[in-house]
Amino acid sequence: MLGLICVDVDGTLVGTGNVVREDVWAALADARARGVRIALCSGRPAFGNALKYARRLDPDGWHIFQNGASVVNVGSGESLSEPLPPGELDRLLDRAHETGRLLEVYTDDEYGVTQPGDLARRHAELLGVPYVPRDPQTLTGTRVRAQWVVPLAESAGVQAEPHPGLDLHPAGSPVMPDVMFISVTRAGVGKGSAVTRVAAAYGLPLERVMMVGDGHNDVTAMRVVGHPVAMGNADAEARAAGRYHVAHVDAGGLAEAVGLALRL
């Protein structure tokens, strides 16, 4: 039996209806009852629905948010944050205002948007937070992540632009299939670096860790663990990184992965 299962949210835990299947919750609860730690490993921030998921999965454990920029113990409140370089964030904000694109800027527990409107409203609904647009310049906490929220047709162009000192983590959501979320963190920060830290916090070798994911931003974590699992709806890069392959998110693939972890 493995010691830690790391679980992506969109396309892995949450399917097209923006809900988690009851059999998936049951499988995860059974694994936790048997002593397996469960860590959310998401691009989402540590508030709204993602925080609710984390507390249900492992209420006194470590969880990964914001593509590794935030590693938070939801029981103690302890947080390991990786701040964005201030100069690079300023350049991102300037580019957002020049292009009219939506850029979101996050601390551990709040965020602001450069372009209030339909995309920002829909994303707030997906995150499970009230739609109250806030200027990123008014945020008071450490800024750990930015995120471009753009139509799919614009995604390749945005990713081709220079982002010196930063890493990009593009991901989609079955809830907003017409949109690409391009998360921006300090260079070297990703789900892989965060999973490594969480495993160390639990005293577990990475060989006893499973990562279940479906997208590009899951691949760094899939590559560092002993047991990478690709969902049936995974993109080509995540499928290639998977040692195991399970069913589509809407068919309960995550429950299948949890069962595998209990047998290993």
Describe this structure as you would to a colleague:
This protein has 264 residues and is α/β, with parallel strands linked by helices. The chain has helices spanning 22-33, 48-57, 86-99, 118-127, 152-160, 191-201, 219-224, 236-241, 253-263, and strands spanning 4-7, 37-40, 62-65, 70-73, 79-81, 102-106, 111-113, 145-151, 166-171, 179-186, 209-213, 227-230, 244-245. The strands form 3 sheets. A 5-stranded parallel sheet has the order 2-1-11-12-13, with helices on both faces. Helix 1 packs parallel to helix 9 (253-263). The longest helix is centred in the middle third of the chain and has 14 residues, at 86-99. It is globular and about 55 Å long.
Q: Report the uncertain regions.
A: none
Measured as a percent range, the helix fraction is 25-40%
What value does the average pLDDT take?
95
Strand order, largest beta sheet: 2-1-11-12-13
DSSP helical segment count: 9
N-to-C series of helices and strands: EHEHEEEHEEHEHEEHEHEHEH
Spatial gap, N to C terminus: 5 Å
Largest sheet: 5 strands, parallel
Structural class based on helices, strands and sheet pairing: alpha/beta
Shape: globular
Radius of gyration: 17 Å
Strand content: 15-25%
Number of strands: 13
